[in-house]
Structure formats: C-alpha cells, structure tokens
Fold each of these.
Amino acid sequence: MEYLTHSNTFKYIKNISEGEGTILLYNQIGDSIDEKGNYVYGISGSAFAYEMQYLQSVCTKIKVRINSIGGSVLDGYSIVSAILNSSVPCDTYIDGLAASISGVIAMAGKKVYMADFGTLMLHNPSGGNDKAVLDLVKNTLVTIFEQRTKLTAEEVSDMMNKETWLGSKDAFNMGLVDELITCSNKVKIKKNESLSNMALIYNKIINKPNMEKITNVLKLSNEVDEASIVAEIEKKDTAYAELLEKNTALEDELKTIKDAENAAKELAEQELKDKAVLMIENADKDKKITATEKPDLIALASSSESNYKLVENMLSKINNTKDAVKIFDPKNVVTGKGTEDRSSWTIRDWEKKDAKGLAKIKNETPEVYTQMYNDHYKKQK
C-alpha cells in the first residue's frame, strides 16, 4: 500500500494505491452562508481541479466518491470539467447522497456506480433573480443528464422542475448509473428529512473506521466487511491454537527423549564405574598396584570407555613380581649339591651358613624373612 505523502497539501485526495487514486466529495460543493449568517466552507472547485491534475500525473485510474448535498453550481462546473477532461479513466461513485449539483457531478464519470442504499436528487438551479441566467444554467445541466442517459431533454427538465428523488434501482433503470453496489447496510430516511441530515446519515455509514492496516496484515481487500475480518481473525486464532498445541506436544516428546537419554547416560556411567572399580580391585588383589593408587585409577578408568581400555591395557602389561617368584620352601632349598631340607634353620643359621640365601629370601619372600626374624630375635628378648 502506497499512502499519499502530501497530506498537508491536498484536501480531498484520500489515498493512492497501486496506480489508483481516490478523491472524495464528502461535503457541500463550494462555500456558503448559513441561516445564522455563519460562513460555511465547502469543496472548492479550483482546489479539486488542482488535485485531479496531480492524480492524473501519478495514477492510471481515478475514483471520485460522492456524498454531498450539492451547493455552488460554479464550483460544480469546475469539478465536472476536471472529471470530463481527465487524461486517465475517471469513474464516479454515489456512496450515499448525490443531490443537486453533486448529482450532476456524478454524471460526469466515465462509469457511474451507486450504492444500493444511495439517493440521487435532481432539481432546478436556484439563487439570484436573473431568470435568463438560471435558465441557461438549467439548460447546461439538462444537457449533461441528457448526454449521459437515454432520457430526453424534456424528461430531464420535467424531473428537475418536480425536484425528483431517485433510489438506486430507479436511477439504474433510467440509465443514470451503470452499476449498483450491493451493501449490507440498510438506511432509513425519514420523510421530509433535510439534505444536511441525509448527508450526515450517509456519512455515518460510508465513513467506516480505517481498517487498512488490519486488512493488509490479514491480506484481505480493503473493501471487505467486518464479518469477513472477524472470520479471518478467528481462522488465524484457530491455526495459532493448533500450532501451539502441536508445539506443546513436541516439547513434551522432546523432554521424554531427553529424560530417556539422561537416564541411559547415567546408567552407562554407573556401569562403567562399577566395571572400573571391579578391575582396579582385582588389580589390587593381584598386587599390580598399591592401595594409594586405587582412587586415581578408578577415577581415570570410569571417566570414559577409552580411558577404561587404556587402564585395562596398562594393567595387563604389569607382571606381579611377588606372584612370579616361587614360594620359598625350606624343605626343598636348591643348592649346588642338590636339594636340602633347611626347615630347622633359624635366621641365625642362615646368617652363618648361607648369607646369600638369606638375602634372597629377604628380597623375594619378605614375609618368610620377617617371620624368621621375629621367631628368633623376639624370643631372645
């Protein structure tokens, strides 16, 4: 949507969108003095013509929307001329009331549209005392209506003499409008209602709140009614609720998966730790490690599968020197002369008779040496 950036300059242009301009005649035509002597500002014919010139320079089509009680014939002539001389197609829309000179302006459109609740009024021009001038003005207006419709000049003149009020169907049947616009709004106009009040009533209907931002967000036409907007919002609300429900379900499913993964991870870690503890305990029993080494080795082996294999491989290469040494048997001591029974020898005997053998016992089987030492020396005390 391209909005007009000349809001401080133009009075009547509503907006320009996608090469189409809309200009409003939602007031009386020309200025006037009311019954109380107050000056009432209306739509200036020259200002309207100026804005039409601008629209022709930037648009490929123009819409003139009308809801007016009429007014100054002179200003009306300027507006009619601007529409007729437009260099781009210019259609007119009777959105509510098109009375007097505003009805004539409506006839200037290349194509004339009318709301199904709209009203068109024709009457003789008035003001001033020069009948010749008034007749000239009337003839001009009659010509405009005659050229626009299949009505004869006499028929148009007679309608103006009678001050004829036409609803949308009659105006369409007479060829005064080309197409009717069906609307959901219903309008009740009291008998003998003043033109000003009629225009106000129509204004309340046609001047709906500007919903362009909402319709743009919803990707709807700017012409849609309130029910269509509400239906689209409800549709989006339903879609949002469904997405929210799906998102919640996915979050629950993801949590279940994560919980299962965490549980599996904790179980694997505990199994690895149990396996590491068992391996280190066995290594301790096999005298491959000392008690002080156990905590660090358990921590390392249980930290990851790769570290477990590393520790396992390391332990497999350690020879238990204590287990590798033959158990000392004092009954079968090997000597240069063969085996000899030395089960009766005390530590003193070993010291005197075979000091080297005693040293070997001390290095290879310290438990036997300690026992022999205690048996002899502690008894001597």
Amino acid sequence: MEKQISFSELEFRSKRKRTQKEVFFERMEKLVPLREWCEIILPYYYEDGNGRPPVRLEIMVKMYLVSQWYNLSDPQTEDMLNENLAARGYVGISGNAPDETTLCKFRGLLEKNGLNKAIFESFNTRLVEKKIMIREGTIVDATIIDAPESRKNKHSQKTPEMASTRKSNSHRYGMKAHIGVDSETGLVHSMAATAANVTDVEMAGAVVHGEESKVHGDAGFTGIERRVEIREKFQDGSGETEWLTNNHKNPPHLVCKLKEGVEFTINKKRGSVTTEEEKEQEKAKSRVRIKVEWAFAVIKHRFGFRKTRYRNLAKNENKLYMLFTLANVFRCSQMKLSTI
C-alpha cells in the first residue's frame, strides 16, 4: 500500500530549488547497493516474534548511513530524521523516526558480527567485477585521527588503546587509519586501524593485496621492499630465500625472493633531496600519490570524522570500514557512474 503524502512533504517536493541534501541523497539512492547490503545483514537481524515487531531492515540501514554521512550521534540522527524532510524522504519514513536506542542496538549488531568489514569487502568485489577498480597499482598511506585526551571519566585516564605520536613537530594523540588505494581510480581496497604510534611501514603488508605491479608511498614507507610481510605477499614462488636486513640496527634475516616486475616507488625524505633533478623526480612521484589524500579528505571533511567517537579501537575500526565504503560510493558518484 502506498503511503499517504502529508501537506508539508507535498509542498517540500513542489518547491523549485532543491537543497544540497536532496541532491546528495538522490545520488546515493542510485549508487548504494542497498539490497546487497541488506542481504549481508539479514541473517543476523532480529526475527519477528513476541513483542514489538522489528523496524524494517532497509529503514535501519538507511538511518545508519545518514548517521555516517553526517557524523551524527544516535540522538542527533533521530532528531535529524524527525525534522529534516530530505533525510526523511531518503530513509522512507512518514511518522516518527526509529528512536536512538533502536539505532544503538543496530550499530552494536553490526559491530558484534563484523558486518561493516563484510560490506566493505563485498562492495570492493563488486567494483572489481565491474572493472571499476583496476588493482594494477596501489598507493599506501596513513592518517592520524585524534582522540580526546581528557581524563575526566570514571577511570581517570585517557582513551584506552590510543597512543601519542609526533607529526610535523606537533604532538598528536589518537589512532591511525592505514589504507591501500587503487592508483588509477583512487578507490580504497584495503584498510587497517592501529594506535597512532604504529609506524606506516609496519602496516604496509596489511594494505596491499599482492597482485600489484607498482606500489607507491611517501617517505614513511622507506624500506618497504625489505619487510618480511611484503616479501611474503610478493614472493616469486620459487621457494628461494635471501638474507636481508630492515636497517643497520637489526641483524640480517632470511626472506622470500621478490617476484620480477614489482616496482616500489617511494618518496625520499626531504633532507636527502638536494638537486633540481631529484626534486622533479619527487614531484612526479607525488602527482601519482596525491590520489590517496582524496579518501582521507572525504572521511574527515565531507563526512566529518576528524576525532574518534568511541573509546574502543575495534569500534572505531568498524566505523572506518563503513566510512571508506561510503567514500568509495562517493568517489563513484564523482566518476559520473549512474549505477554500480
């Protein structure tokens, strides 16, 4: 049965100029594979039985997406759906929005069963099958996401599982999001979350898939080709090994031989670049590598995730999987794709 349209919704639809939210929700309605995501969640969703019937899954998924796009808390999301007609039209509700407790429990269900990661991997598989994601080259990078340093809590301590580090001569406290991005399209294919004091190169093995012919990175990935986890991803298959060392402080160790055709293009540290020719070479590397910054710009500035919302690293990692999935959707919209 088709729902009855209220006078306010009718007037809202008939006005001449559409708002930015209307345009955004319309684009996302076309590009988000909602049915596929609902199929991933459905086996874990609540069954209709005794008590109040569960909210329709499609409504809960869209409500959750709204909270991610605008970095809203559960109460803020409920308020937005009760007062913003563009958001109400996208989610598909005519009466009161599901309350904040319902959204909180739904988010907990996704976190408990690792469903955001499953959605991230499913969407990337879809991009590969449709030949949108090329997978011939990867750009690796990491960004720091700040966490509150306040000790005004029942434990009288900072956020657990976070750590301090220094970046650009400034103190930073929080976590790191490590990603691998397709060098052709700028789409994120791999993600890992750690405390902020974990170096970029330590997590390089987690954000490459092993099928690349080129790997690009900044100076934080110096020595990436000598790391054991990278050699295991790109081994030549002969079973032969060789002695290598990561740096002068560590003793040599046996690692797999690197397969032919793999090229690691890593920026040099600023102090080691002296000649004009070297400067031009570094600029050429950076022109390729700049695509990775787009994904960080989307989640931090477009979606507003500049500071951790949860005290637990696993919860923040779960949120990041969904944010980078939505960043890929947003990237596809900028590539002028009508559907995915």
Amino acid sequence: MTRKGKVSYLSSTSSVVQDTLLSCLGSLFAFLLVRWVSEPVFGFTRHTLIYVGSALVLTVIGLVISGSSRVISRYVSFWAGERILLTVLLKELGLAALMVTGVTGLTSPALIVLAVVADALFSIALMLYPRILISRMREEDKSMKDLSTRANALVAGDDDNAAQLAESAARSGRYNILGLLSRKPEMGGKVLGEFIIYYVPDDRALEALQWRLGGIDCILFPKAGPGSRPASGDGGDGASTSDAPDALQQDKMSAAGKLLKRGFDLGLSGLLLILFSPLIAVCALAVRLEDGAPVIYAQERLGRGGKPFRILKFRSMRRDAEAQGVPQLYSGDDDPRLTRVGRFLRTHHLDELPQLWNVLRGDMSFIGYRPERKYYIDRIMAVNPRYRYLYQIRPGVTSYATLYNGYTDTLEKMLTRLDLDLYYLRNHSVWFDVRVLGLTFLRIVGGKKF
C-alpha cells in the first residue's frame, strides 16, 4: 500500500523484499571493503555470512519499527527518506553492538567505525536509487503523455471558420492538426493562418493524402456557419469527427519493464565500459595515429522527448567529411570519406563503442530506435508525421528495424524503418528487447553488416 494519492509500481510486500535485499547488499559491500583494508582473518566466509545474515534480520526489524513495512513510499520524498534513514540507523546500531562482541571477527575500533559508516552509505544509496529512478520515470512519463494522446487530424474547410476550428483544436492539446481540406482546385497548396490547404476532390484523393501524411486519425468538421465562431460540440472543440480515432501509437512497455530495462542498461553499459576499456584505448590510438584529433566524433541527434543530445562515435571519416555544411548519409564501405582505420571500425561495429557512455548517461538504451539528425527528421515528418511518437522512448544502440531494414541511406528506407520502429514501440517488452539484443549479437558475430 502507498500513501493516499500515490500509485505504486510494486506491492508493499515486494517493496519490503526489495529494501531488505538492497540493504543486505550494501552490508556485503561494506564488509568486503573493510576486509580489503584489514589483515586477513581466519574464517572469512563464516564471518561474512554472520555479518550479512545479521544485517538481514536487523533490516527487517528496522522496517517494522520505522513503519516502512506497513506504508511503502515508492518515490523520493521527505517521508521516504526519513523512513529509510531510520531503518538504516537501527540496523547500524545493531551491527555495531554485534561487532563489539567480536562475533564478526572485527576487533579494531577503527575497522568497526569504518564498517558502520560504509554500511550506512552503501545501504542508503542502494535503497534510494530505485526510488530516484522511479521518480524520474514518473516525470518523464508525464512529459511524454502528450506525445501518445494527440490524434493526427485534418479540418474540413478552407475558410476562416475552418482555420479558427483548427487553431482551437490545436490549443486543446488533443489534436495534431496536419492541415485543412478543400474541394476547390485553386485552394490547393495555399496557407490559411498557420495551416496548409490540401485539395481533395474525392475519396481516392483523400486516401492518397492519408498515405502521404502517414495516417490520419480523424477529420474535424466545423459546426458553425461561415463567418461565425465554432460552437462547442463533441469534445468541446467545436467539431465532429468522421470516425473515432484509431488506436494511437503508444509505448506498451509496463512501468516495471521500464525499470528493469533501465537497470539492465545501466549495469551492462558500466560493465562493458570496464571490460572493453583496453579495446577502446586501442581504437582511440589507431584513429589518432592515422588522422589526428579529434578521436571522438560527437553529433547532435534528437532523443527522448525530442530533446537533442550528443551521440558519440569513434571518428571514421576524414575531418572534412561534411565541409560543404550539408548533412550526407553514409553510403557504405566504398564511401570515399572513410579513413582506413574508420573502414575497419565500421565493418566490425567498433566505431559505436563510445555509445556505451550515452547508454550509461541515459541518453540512449541498448535497444530502441536509431536516432537521427533533425535535418533528416524534418524530411521524414514532412511525409510521415508519426515519427514524433518515437519520442516516447530512448533511442537505441541497435534496433528491431536495424535487423530487418539494415543501414538507411535513402529517405525511402528511413520511412520503411519508421514503420518497423513504430511496430517495436507498440509491442516491445523486456523479452522483446532480449530477443533483439541476442539476434544482433549473433548477426554481428556472423559478419552481417548493418
């Protein structure tokens, strides 16, 4: 149970288990740290089990006394912090008393103090982190809500009344107005207010327009006559719709799945950065020796919420690759802008190793959609505005679309990739991501180029 007005991601029992396990993990880290700086002690394994087992019992007692076992706050708040601090304080008092008796093998006062301080810091950090992460998820989900609830709409009409309705509907936050519809040939292509007018003489032309715009959820019809303000009607927008809006493109991953996915991204990216640090150093040195600095190429892309971030790669092209100032897509292994080292890095996907830092920072995930530059996103959205739905999730180092669409070097391929990305958005889950990650690994090992 949570405080009134809160919606919990986990049950009270699950929260107690989570806090207990994280507290014990903090105690284990603290005990290992103390053992590392102290002299070797006979019976190390037995003392470790005694210490961690005692921490488990004392944590449960602390949760009961502090009240956290009865009312769980799943988010960062003064109340949650106070309960955690009280629980940890009670645990540390019990552990200190236990260590003084010598049961844990620690006899030095300095080591006992170090154990208590380290245990408290590790435990508080580990118990607070899930709450901080969930709080951030709640804020991000709130900011993303608008992206998945607005319907793509057209307004029937080519007069001031239709323009007023379009403005009113856009201000309501319920619709993304794509333009106005007219049956007059001379009005096609003109702009009224902020909205372009499309000439649609018949149903076939409307169907063609739907394909051009990447799908239309509904059409709004003014209820008022020409020259008058729209009357309030269905939905309060002065409009009626041709049909109920289709199911919108929404992120279907559960809150628990998002938490697990972010934890996986954080843990794996940190581990791989450590394991691959020698390889990263070798790649950086190779780039520097062949073509000088900079070794890392940072390029602005749009990520979650449509916010820009700097994606990191080892530089694989000459420094004057886009000297003309116009973005150019990579055209394959025969691209004349590639350096020799860069061609090798691209072939073996080593140029993307720095993106592990993007994943660790939270700019990206291991699995998502491949982020693009605004230059190309503008061109995609001019044809298919549904690209904006992808802003609900983090872009990925790899993607479901990459497996089946390969590298995109044309606008047509980008539009095909968008359909696959939207399918991923509607269907992705933890197991879906595991499958994509596994298939990506197998194809890279098998020498497949993306």
